[in-house]
Amino acid sequence: MDDYDALASRLETVAADIDEIAFDQLREAVADGEVERPADDKKLMQARRSIEKAVGILRQLAGSTVYDD
């Protein structure tokens, strides 16, 4: 179903945005001389993994021909 694919694509964009935020935070931490990862990094990666799982489920739904109610 196209709706599932469209939603999955939007979520992939959100995941990419999270990657950019996390990378920017890491770059800033290194520039500031930090030796540990930023406090938000763990939660950002947790959110990204959850989004990836949702994308996978939506892609599966888009490829299925039988829908359960």
Account of the 3D structure:
It contains two helices and no strands. By secondary structure, it is mostly helical.
Kindly list the characteristics that best describe this protein.
69 residues; single chain; mainly alpha; elongated
As residue ranges, the low-confidence spans are: none
- Count of beta strands: 0
Helix content: over 70%
Q: What is the structural class?
A: mainly alpha
Number of helices: 2
- In terms of DSSP E residues, the strand content is under 5%
From the alpha carbons, calculate the radius of gyration and give it in angstroms: 16 Å
Question: Can you summarize the main beta sheet?
Answer: none
The dominant shape is: elongated
Terminal-residue CA separation: 15 Å
**What is the H/E string?**
HH
Report mean pLDDT, rounded to a whole number. Answer: 91
Give me the secondary-structure topology.
Layout lengths: L1 H30 L9 H23 L6
Helix pairs in contact: 1-2
Summarize, please:
With 69 residues, the protein is mainly alpha-helical. Helices cover 77% and strands 0% of the residues.
